[in-house]
Amino acid sequence: MSWRLAGVLALGLAVLVSAFAIVASQHENRRLFQRLVQLERQRDALDIEWGRLQLEQAALSTPAEVELRARRQLSMKTPGPGETVMVVVP
Known about the structure:
By secondary structure, the chain is mainly α. Helices cover 77% and strands 0% of the residues. It has two helices and no strands.
């Protein structure tokens, strides 16, 4: 086998290996991009849920809502004048 033929075969093999490497790299890139899109959608859904929970917390933490829940769920009431004790700290 001549050196010229061996060189051509080596270059042909290098081209084939390079082509397979490009295909594998593109496939991995597409797979990672799909995962990125999936994670971005999940992040957006979690951001929406977080905003909804913040609004719910703000609505439930108003003084009127706290008092209403204390009366209904805990059967609490505002103490009358005879039920209060004044503590004086010197």
